Automatic annotation (TrEMBL), chain A:
Entries under PROSITE patterns matching the protein: WD_REPEATS_1, WD_REPEATS_2, WD_REPEATS_REGION
Residue ranges the record marks as coiled coil: none
CDD domains: WD40
Domain of life: Eukaryota
Name of the protein: Probable cytosolic iron-sulfur protein assembly protein 1
A GO term from the CC aspect: cytosolic [4Fe-4S] assembly targeting complex
Function noted in UniProt: Essential component of the cytosolic iron-sulfur (Fe/S) protein assembly machinery. Required for the maturation of extramitochondrial Fe/S proteins.
Lineage: Eukaryota, Fungi, Dikarya, Basidiomycota, Agaricomycotina
Species name: Polyporus arcularius HHB13444
UniProtKB/TrEMBL annotation, chain B:
Name by which UniProt lists this protein: Iron hydrogenase
GO molecular function terms listed in the Swiss-Prot or TrEMBL record: 4 iron, 4 sulfur cluster binding
Keyword Iron-sulfur annotated: yes
Keyword terms of this UniProt record: 4Fe-4S, Iron, Iron-sulfur, Metal-binding
Pfam families, alphabetized: Fe_hyd_lg_C (PF02906)
Organism: Polyporus arcularius HHB13444
Domain of life: Eukaryota
Span of the signal peptide: none
Recorded family membership: Belongs to the NARF family.
Residue ranges of domain Iron hydrogenase large subunit C-terminal in the record: 26-360
Keyword Protein biosynthesis: no
Length: 365, 501
């Protein structure tokens, strides 16, 4: 154990049920729902609630629904729209499914029943090979996806689950592993097997285009996460490091820090606001969770503090505050995602090659 | 492989005419390629250079330096494509085939549809592209006039697009009887420029008589005469788009064939950019929509057209997936039906943003700018794309400027495309009789009618043969073979390797 660390990671729940490796999890941003996807082509939905008994501090999770997606191959990633009403699935069958519940005009908001049937409302075709990642922009107006076909697609979300293709970005030279949106602006980032990260914006006169390429990783970049305040971008790589990039100009990002500790490929990272251990710390940038092929989960606290080189200047600081090894036994851990809902900032979920989804909580030690 | 080296290699090894193995070398150049060369020349010269000047200079190079026997541009072949295309649209409109009809001149689009959108194939026009019509004209009509069989001709085309090489090598354009292709070798504009560089040819130097129109008065021999191969029409700049004017020529045909053309009003609407525009013909009094078309360029807009056509026509888009996803298309149709506009009748689809003037085979912009994207706005050559951009390399302060460079250049090529010589003054009738001279398009129509009559061996009809004339059955089936083609879906499975990622 790591008794010298200021926090520990409690296992809150182990959610079994997928019949093949679990790839990804997504927390519904507005409702107490967690979705997971798997090579078994299913999406499983879990509800959770804050315990009424104050003596029991952990939320309780229960499986409420399984969506047999009908995708012909693995469902690699899932993403909720910011409204929480729509779920997107990215599959190795090259398609993206858009799932929602039939809207009943008369029904009140409170009548939401997550166990009611989720239907495929739209199918986004275009990728030629395995779709690897899918993400909604902060406003919910845009959806991005990426694929082994080396492309990144941007779709505009229209009413009635209709979509319009806004851009097909053919910038990467290899498989694109991940797409991520800036938390407030329409800036898109993608990460690839070509070891680079690319950043895109819309040219209102024209199409989406790549305004910057971030080289630096020495192997595949698997995952991306913007800081909650949007000033930083973290990237996770097969080179076992996590790099932090800072926005120094409107359209310019620079490498500022590296987080080392993982022994193997870092497959997934998530950057949440966290619950800073020192509540007086005004410089906190939140908590970053990372995991990967070594089965280790690290939780890093990031902040702004005096620079090591020149204490009179401010610089990005980082420290590990908690760590779990063998999070899914001997298996790879494929994803880690913080819960975005207020009151649950210390909660995150992971999905592993053992087919299990686990929920964890960071608790000061 | 089809390349400028292959052309040189062929010409060097082509035995001289007495040999029975001699093949007559013929070259046909697309107007968009001429525009690319013209824009490149104009940017380094004080006076703009016209397409006909470029054609003259390239012709002299191809004949005198390379040894081609004949040099053509492909606009008369395009004229035939447009005529046949309008005929096909009328057939579909009358219930014989599916609407909307989608343009078929862009091989990038056609190959893409065959590979990933088999359900779109019934909508794609079966009329041959200008390149392939030119192949048919050169190998089967001009060849016959010259006393050559198709295999005794070596036909090269110059195109703004790499995918035209794929089009030329399609099985449908291979002549089994003579074991030869309608177009033997396609080179891009850039490869033509390489040929000129190799041979030290300076295209900026004028050639004699380059400002003299080739056919001073466009006069026609009496009806019934054969078309004269030496009076092959050239540089017919069809009004509309620089990518072939497919939509515009359909609209013109519909308007001119309407009972009262004056009652039709054309409105255009830009959907998002100049690359996606809608054109609607409305009856002025009744408000009835007679025709709804769109011009849709670029891979991104193409996706939306595929989705829209699939939705409007109620066909399943894409490969689809088994199970619950299969019924999705129907569901959306039902939901959207009420508020959805009536679908299109026709879409001019081109895979490149800005169309063929911005094709992948065109010359690079003259300004030596750092390219973040290629001429098509995206990179097909993965090796060359921006991965190697060094960490220390600073990007332009306004990151958009590199893209604007491309766009500005494409505008110059577009302008060069439409830059024609001043129309020569009408020649006064020499002998006082009323002049038989007609407009280039009337001349081309007449010429096309004669070509059709000769190529289809049509039985005599009352009056002269026009493109729309209904011929005898045998002639109609020959017309079909000569000027139409077909498409087939390519099975392309997502590779099911046991990939960990």
């Amino acid at each position: 154990m790591n008794q010298d660390l200021p926090a520990v990671i409690h296992e809150v729940a182990t959610l079994e049920g997928h019949e093949d490796r679990a790839w990804h999890v997504a927390w519904n941003p507005t409702r107490p729902l967690l979705a997971s996807c798997s090579a078994d082509k299913n999406v499983r939905l879990y509800a959770y609630s804050k315990p009424t008994d104050p003596a029991v501090s952990e939320p309780k999770f229960s499986h409420i629904s399984t969506i047999p997606t009908g995708h012909a191959k693995t469902v690699r990633a899932v993403a909720w729209s910011p409204s929480g009403k729509t779920l997107a699935t990215a599959s190795f069958d090259s398609n993206i499914g858009i799932w929602a519940q039939e809207e009943d005009g008369e029904a009140e908001e409170g009548a939401f029943n997550p166990a009611a049937e989720w239907e495929c409302m739209s199918l986004l075709e275009g990728h030629e090979t395995e779709c690897k990642s899918v993400a909604y922009s902060a406003s919910g107006n845009l959806l991005a996806s990426c694929s082994r076909d080396k492309t990144v697609w941007v779709w505009e979300v229209h009413p009635d689950h209709d979509f319009e293709c806004m851009g097909v970005l053919m910038e990467h030279t290899q498989d694109v592993k991940c797409v991520a949106w800036h938390p407030t602006e329409e800036i898109l980032a993608s990460a690839s097997y070509d070891d680079t990260i690319k950043l895109y914006i819309d040219d209102p006169q024209e199409d989406w285009f790549c305004f910057q390429t971030l080289p630096g990783h020495t192997s595949t970049v698997w995952a991306l996460a913007f800081s909650p305040d949007g000033r930083f971008l973290a990237s996770a790589s097969d080179d076992t490091t996590i790099r932090i990039w800072e926005r120094v100009q409107e359209h310019k990002w620079e490498y500022v820090d590296v987080l080392e500790g993982h022994e193997r490929s870092v497959y997934s990272i998530s950057w949440g606001v966290g619950k800073p251990l020192d509540s007086d710390d005004a410089g906190s940038l939140g908590w970053l969770a990372s995991t990967g092929g070594d089965g280790i989960i690290y939780v890093w606290e990031l902040g702004v503090g005096p620079s090591a080189k020149d204490p009179s200047r401010k610089a990005l600081t980082h420290r590990v505050i908690a760590k779990v090894t063998e999070a899914h036994g001997v298996h790879d851990v494929n994803s880690v995602v913080w819960c975005p809902r207020a009151g649950f900032e210390d909660l995150f979920a992971t999905a592993g090659d053992d087919g299990a989804v686990k929920v964890w909580r960071v608790v000061p030690s | 492989m089809q390349s400028h080296a292959e052309v040189l290699n062929f010409l060097e090894n082509n035995p001289p005419p007495p040999s029975c193995h001699h093949r007559l070398p013929v070259i046909s150049i697309a107007p968009q390629s001429l525009a690319s060369l013209a824009a490149s020349l104009s940017s380094s010269s004080s006076q703009p250079v016209s397409l006909s000047q470029v054609l003259r200079r390239v012709s002299v190079f191809c004949r005198d330096v390379l040894g081609f026997a004949h040099v053509y541009d492909t606009t008369f072949a395009r004229h035939i494509s447009l005529l046949e295309h309008a005929k096909e649209f009328a057939e579909r409109k009358s219930g014989n085939g599916k609407l909307p009809m989608l343009a078929s001149a862009c091989p990038g689009w056609v190959c893409y549809a065959e590979k990933t959108h088999g359900e779109m194939l019934p909508f794609i026009s079966q009329t041959k592209s200008p390149q392939q019509v030119m192949g048919t004209l050169v190998k089967e009509w001009l060849g016959a006039k010259w006393g050559k069989t198709p295999d005794q001709i070596y036909h090269v085309t110059v195109m703004p697009c790499y995918d035209k090489k794929l089009e030329a090598s399609r099985q449908d354009f291979y002549n089994e009887a003579y074991a030869t292709r309608d177009v033997d070798c396609v080179i891009t504009t850039g490869e033509l420029q390489l040929l000129m560089q190799d041979k030290g040819w300076d295209l900026s130097i004028p050639v004699p008589d380059e400002n003299v129109p080739r056919l001073p008065p466009l006069e026609l021999a009496p009806a019934g005469d054969a078309a004269d191969p030496d009076a092959f029409p050239e540089l017919l700049m069809h009004p509309g788009t620089s990518s072939g004017s497919y939509l515009q020529s359909l609209i013109s045909t519909i308007v001119s064939s309407a009972p009262d053309p004056g009652t039709l009003e054309l409105t255009t609407k830009t959907v998002r950019s100049a690359d996606y525009e809608e054109f609607t013909l409305t009856h002025r009094e009744t408000g009835q929509v007679v025709f709804r078309g769109a011009k849709c360029y670029g891979f991104r807009n193409l996706q939306n057209v595929v989705r829209k056509v699939g939705r409007d026509a109620g066909v399943q888009v894409g490969r689809g997936a088994a199970g619950r996803l299969a019924g999705v298309r129907g569901k959306v149709v039902r939901k959207g039906a009420a508020q959805e506009d009536k679908g299109y009748d026709y879409v001019e689809v081109m895979a490149c943003p800005s169309g063929c003037v911005n094709g992948g085979g065109q010359l690079r912009p003259v300004q030596a700018e750092k390219q973040l994207a290629d001429a098509e706005g995206f990179s097909r050559d993965w090796q060359e794309s921006g991965v190697s951009l060094g960490a220390e390399e600073s990007l332009p302060a306004a990151p958009i400027s590199a893209k604007w460079g491309d766009r500005e250049w494409t505008k110059k090529v577009e302008a060069a495309y439409w830059r024609t010589l001043p129309t020569p003054p009408p020649t006064p009738p020499a002998d006082g009789k009323p002049s038989g001279s007609v407009s280039p398009f009337e001349y081309a129509d007449e010429y096309a009618g004669r070509v059709l009559r000769e190529m289809t061996k049509a039985a005599p009809v009352e009056g002269k043969v026009e493109w729309t004339t209904k011929l005898d059955d045998a002639a109609e089936s020959r017309r079909q073979r000569l000027f139409r083609t077909q498409y087939r879906a390519v099975e392309s499975e997502v590779v099911g390797l046991a990939v960990k990622w």
